[in-house]
Amino acid sequence: MSGLFAGTPLEQPVTCPRCNRRIGDCTCPRDDQGKLHDPAQWPARVRREKNRGKYLTIASGLGLREKDQKALLAHLKSKLGVGGSLKDNELTLQGDHRDTLVELLKAQGYPAKPSGG
Predict the structure, then answer these.
(1) Is the model's pLDDT at 69 over the cut of 70?
(2) Residue 55 lies in a domain
(3) Mean per-residue pLDDT for 2-16?
(4) pLDDT (0 to 100) of residue 15
(5) Mean pLDDT of the 96-101 span
């Protein structure tokens, strides 16, 4: 990959503006077009549903690529100690964790809001 001032003595690798790593080594979340993902621009909605007598907590509107959604889901599952899945760009966690999930998403920079009753 060519860098800044390619072919000159001032050549520099292209780096991520958030983590200052080379683009190939960057692990920052990105949207579907590959642009750097800013969580503050994606208002996440967290709702609770009852399915077969058990509660599910569902987060939507995160605006991440599938790869980054899977990484976020794995992080949330380990933090909450529950199971979960990814389906139709929604993170589904087992159990009623709506308020806790809102706080975890706010800590990551999302303007998350609980929805539903």
Answers:
(1) yes
(2) yes
(3) 69
(4) 80
(5) 95
| 3: containing domain | 1-29
**Torsion-angle region of 74 (φ positive above 0: left; ψ -120 to 50: alpha; else: beta):** alpha
Query: In Å, how far are 7, 12, 19, 41, 89 from 34, measured between CA atoms?
Result: 26, 21, 15, 15, 17
Tell me the one-letter amino acid at 29.
Answer: P
Q: What is the CATH number of the domain that holds 90?
A: 3.30.780.10
Which residues neighbour 32 within 8 Å (Cβ) at sequence distance 6 or greater? 65
Compute the distance between CA of residue 60 and CA of residue 44 in angstroms, rounded to an integer: 6
Judge if pTM exceeds 0.70: yes
Give the whole-angstrom CA distance, residue 117 versus residue 98.
10
- Count of all residues that appear for the chain in the document: 117
Domain assignment present for 83: yes
